[in-house]
């Protein structure tokens, strides 16, 4: 399976197309298209989010760039050597990924950040092809239960109930790779204390240990 990114005018999901067109009319200088993944196919770590944020990735064209979740994510990636440079929340900040790649289960921004089951289904082939293209992949990290569930479906893991979501949980996959979970690094989760910076860092420290096995 060869990975081909969705086109700028991907027609797969009518609701998302209408939402995209509405924002293209309002904000002509925004990205307003499927958001490409960030990082190389040779990475050993794939981080999977749910979908682009309206004023973050949908505006800038890079996953988790331009919103609060990106502030915590990229600071942590830099600390643990999965990125280099300086994160300034824009495409021209010079930030580069190191042995890591970031993707979303749904590539276009959904209303209220809530993709429908059909939209997940329509976009799943892109995630499946991306995973297949990553020959050196060792760890898949899902940010949030929504992303976790989509990774389970993309990998056709059975029984699905054996792979329940829990923060900092590591699942051993049948092919020897590791499937890791974290609470999403959203402003809501950090403001409520559900996720702290230390808890988030613990996940990436565990990923580093997996690489050393």
What this model shows, in words?
This protein is α/β, with parallel strands linked by helices and 213 residues long. The chain has one domain: Uracil-DNA Glycosylase, subunit E. The protein contains 7 helices and 7 strands; from the N terminus they run αβααβββαβαββαα. The strands form 2 sheets. It has a 5-stranded mixed beta sheet. Strand 6 and strand 7 form a beta hairpin. Helix 4 crosses helix 5. It is globular, with a radius of gyration of 16 Å.
Describe the SSE topology.
Elements: H1 14-26, E1 45-49, H2 57-60, H3 68-79, E2 83-84, E3 96-97, E4 100-104, H4 117-133, E5 139-143, H5 145-154, E6 170-172, E7 178-182, H6 187-191, H7 197-211
Parallel strand pairs: 1-4, 1-5, 5-7
Antiparallel strand pairs: 2-3, 6-7
Helix pairs in contact: 3-7, 4-5
Q: What's the average pLDDT?
A: 97
Binned strand content:
5-15%
Strands in their spatial order, largest beta sheet: 4-1-5-7-6
Instruction: Work out the oligomeric state of the chains in this entry.
Output: single chain
What attributes characterize this protein structure?
five-stranded mixed beta sheet, 7 strands, single chain, alpha/beta, 213 residues, 13% strand, two-stranded antiparallel sheet, 36% helix
Quick overview of this protein structure:
It is built from seven helices and seven strands, in the order αβααβββαβαββαα.
